[in-house]
Amino acid sequence: MIQRFILGVVLVGVMVLGGTSTYMYLGARHTRSLAAPEKPTAATPRPQAFSLPGTLYLAQSGALYTLSAGRFHQITPEAGWGQPSISPDGTILAVKYGSYWSDVYVLNRFGTVMRQVTSNQSRFGMRDPSLNHWSFYPRVGYDGATLWMTYDGLKCDGCYDVSPAVYSMPLGGTIRQGRAWTDGGNYSGGDQQPVPMPQGGVIYTKFDFASSYDYNLDDKLVGMLWYTTRANSVGRMLTSPGEDCREPALSPDGKQIAMICTYEKQVSYLTIASWNGSSLGARRTIISDQLVAQPTWAPDGSGIAYFAPGVAAGQFQLWFLPKAAYAPPPAPPTPSPTPGGPHNGPLPTPSPTPTPPPVRPIQITTNAGFDATSPMAWGG
User: 47, 74, 176, 340: which has the highest count of C-beta atoms within 10 A?
Assistant: First the structure.
């Protein structure tokens, strides 16, 4: 009986960790030609290779790495670290996974632990793992004082139902001061990866069954972006169940949302939509020939980094898409009036505007094998 219970807890933990993204990640790793990934530090690009601006924080095999000036550096040991984010003061928030729990920590930019924020291991947790809790996807709000995260605090002690919900709490406080902003649902994957908004409120991914929203859809587990502006409110759906979107990321200017959408298929498109502070504009599919995960905007607006396999069914590598690949084309110039009044003869034929070649993604690594369930953090 206890073995079955522990197995159930482990499976719930995997589900909570990344929802459907975990399935995509594990599925992509099943390949006949899969080689063990190299440490990013062993695969450091040559000095003349393409260099991204700022500092990028990534996770691989339970360790955190930075990429800066074209060089990778390992900043934590391989001890269950993942899901980094950057606070307004430059410190790093990250999750550390235990046996049947996970906690949020504050690190300095060199990976040294400064403070443990949550304490989710129960004193009786080894005997009854259901007494432990899980924290995921920590983000600090724009006020610099509020911690947002996914947390399973709505379950009762000794219960098997894990309903991850979006929580907020004072960054310098304890989880007892936290409050649930969403309800998380039941056995559906819950509400994941909250992104606080500058104007207040939070966008997050709600995992639920498509048929609960549209009887014409199959009874599949899908992701939907939702937005709520106050705790315990129903909030508002931003993307439909049929689009199956998740992993939102806000652009530096606050006017666009990048996400991945699957349209209930075994695909993962990089999608961008405008954001006016309350609703999304038309979706634009930017990449449709890769299994994209965790899109992350460059802090200077120069492009988007993301994870995708370098070869079919391969490990997830780091890619960069320059802004020119998705920026709207410039408007054609307005014809200037003819000097001296109307022209009586035939007007000259305008020269055709040459079509620029398409801008392709740049592959940064070739055999690193990054954790595609862990968002990246990118600082200037």
Answer: 74
